[in-house]
């Protein structure tokens, strides 16, 4: 199963969600691949490992399954860093989209679950969407971020129409409680996307503290972030059913 975490908006908990879901599924015994298709190395940093040019080498042919970093038991990472931008330019400018898509698809083969963390505006995000069974769109319940959900929905519809996307989209409200207008915006999202809107992830300051320490939500026990962990458990149940 391939899960692509994508949003046309920064800071909405894409990386937090990708890492939480990947680690939880690895803890459940699945062989999980987590690919950092952002260019800031934030997947690696939030797992406490060194960012590197794994994504660049994956696409240029010198990164194999054995080169993945086993960041946790059953959790294999393809690290990224700013050099992923060069791959993005190559795919964009040389028209090697389909070769790149095949390279990524072939790479996922030995894994039961694949999670892609992405960055908006990159061709790499489009590639990850094209391979996805599930596109998970985190959003904070705030007007501009919610607009970005409609934008990505429109993009997925166009990709679907062109035969480039065959998966299902889910909307994941994150950091809920941080913004005053959240009730109205959540209601509007539920109106538009119905059952595709997942259980909400509450805002808890401790989430950023853990990430800064290179720990996932599922390491150690912190009662104050338990509602966040519980939300991600429900999310996994819904998107993998
Ligand atoms: N439920 C939450 N409660 C409080 N803080 C959160 C929560 N989820 C994520 N955060 C924090 O919000 C910030 C942004 O989250 P994250 O880096 O996952 O977003 P992103 O969408 O990947 O951002 P970027 O666009 O920069 O890649 C981080 O500091 C993260 O720890
Ligand atoms: Mg991120």
Compile the SSE list and pairings.
Elements: E1 2-5, H1 14-27, E2 32-36, H2 42-47, H3 54-60, E3 69-72, E4 75-78, H4 84-94, H5 97-108, E5 113-117, H6 123-131, E6 134-139, H7 143-161, E7 168-173, H8 182-193, H9 206-212, H10 226-240
Helix pairs in contact: 1-10, 3-4, 5-6
Bound molecules: adenosine-5'-triphosphate and magnesium ion.
Textual characterization of the structure:
By secondary structure, the chain is an alpha/beta fold. It has one domain (about 1-240): Rossmann fold (3-Layer(aba) Sandwich), CATH 3.40.50. It contains 10 helices and 7 strands. The mean pLDDT is about 95. It binds adenosine-5'-triphosphate (ATP) and magnesium ion. Adenosine-5'-triphosphate binds near residues 14, 16 and 207. Magnesium ion binds next to α1.
CATH topology: Rossmann fold
Binned strand content: 5-15%
The helical percent reads 40-55%
User: What's the domain count?
Assistant: 1
